[in-house]
Amino acid sequence: MKQIVIFALIIFVATGIYAENPGSFAMQNIYSRNTTSLNGSWQSIIDPTNNGEWRQVWKEPVIENNHQFFEYSFDGGPTLNVPGDFNSQLPELKFYESTIWYRRHFNLEPETGKRYFLHFGAVNYKAKVYLNEEEIGTHEGGFTPFQFEISNKVKPGQNTIVVWVNNRRSKDGVPAEGYDWLNYGGITRDVHLVTTNQTYIDDYFIQLKKGSKNEVDGWIKLNGQQKSQTIKISIPELNRELSVRTNPDGHAKVNFAADFDLWTPENPKLYEVIIEAESDKITDRIGFRSIEVDGTQVLLNGEAIFMKAINIHEENPFTEARAASVADNKILLDWAKELGCNMVRLSHYPHNEMMVRMAEEMGLMVWSEIPVYQHINFENPQTVELMNHMLREMIHRDKNRCAVVIWSVSNETYSSPARDKANIGMANICREMDPARLVSKAFSNQSYRNNTFDVWDTLTCHFDVLSINEYIGWYIPWQGEPSDIKWNFVCEKPLFISEFGGESHYGSNHGPKHMAAYWSDEYLENIYKNQVKMFDATPNLVGVCPWLLVDYRSTSRLHPVYQSGWNRKGLISDKGMKKKAWHIMHDYFMRK
Fold this sequence. Notes:
592 residues, alpha/beta, Immunoglobulin-like, Jelly Rolls, TIM Barrel, 3 domains, eight-stranded parallel β-barrel, 8 helices, 16% helix, disordered N terminus
């Protein structure tokens, strides 16, 4: 007989952004919704000087007399595929950083009692959205989803969406003006028209309580007028079913225990979880695991784990484009599995939602990060507010993905009081929104002298895992035997080497193989051999993460022979060829 557990009404008050800005996030689990895809071919106007603003190109030109004309038109112009970056679609846009206007039509017969939303998986970097010649909203940030309700704005028959997209860099942006990857612009992820009932399941958190292996401690939130409802949560495979009732604000606490088959890289178990309200129903595939720190160890489900990781950029090297499809994701994650990884660091921004879900299905833990990178302007309160909101958007989207074990708040930021205050604030946001995961950031503020690595940045004390980017053997020469290296920590933490490596141009035979200036595979291979010797002598080490899986495009890489606009630190070349260093890491991961 089905075991039924009934819970009484429990008042649940949301914290952080939920209480401050209700409804400010895109709805959870978009791929389980009633959606119509708006992907495909969109008409476009290329607008390098942003003249479309004053010409009001979102308005449909209507010729009313013989003397009238318009100096803009979507008709007859180029088309762009959505999802997809515009830089890889037209040769003249290869390094373009300015405005593109997108347009497409869709047909709809609005139903009484239904609500409608436009949902964007991501647009890089700024977006302004118009529906039927009316501005409906804006968004800043190139890697997180957003949505606008259009229930009172759609009309029967044909509707027209126009999206202003601008990827121009800004000193107050996130990331800022300088970063080491290609600034792919455009509507880079899926676009959906979402249909809901008047009251729908907006958000939920169904994960294990911190430190527990069997107790779920979560919540559910409704959006709409009928917020007080009975909600049934069921996990058919476990024969578990429970009911809760939301309070007048639409919130309900969820707490129950079950004998879960815990998710691990070796056994990436996911359960069908059904959430059914009186007015809506949604299904998700959710895994359950615990992740915590004990002294200088990281424990997965109570057992010490070594994180065999690899850095990945969201780019398909074969197409020289932003990874935008399941096939693109699979190329990258299959390589990670072949290398022997149990974890991927999705650098340096939230990757597409299907990438995270696919990693979870494949048994890959995930480090997820926002693009707070190097020259970020921590002195500007608006910039700090923006990065905080990006962080909340990232956590909001993926908080039910058990594969995500680390939220990262920044990478290689320079030490300052403003930086410290902002990073500590972001760490607190992570713990308030999601107390069950680990929090880290990648540090590059350390010194290497006399074969001693001195990690002096006191900000490391505020994070669960001490993550270090070090490039000994490339940017810094070895100062002694790698196996004799010493480490000094300002705080005793689990140590994760989040970046290391060097560059090589696959097949380079242009000079002495012991000289870095010739970008040889043998030179890079030797860096990795020495790094492995150092790892075996490094205290507190809980994981390593080479930079990076595959060569990727970067406008800051200027050597015409060896780089040609590519960062060549990949273990795999841009043509998919495995470098000698690949085999060093593969052998190391196989024995760990």
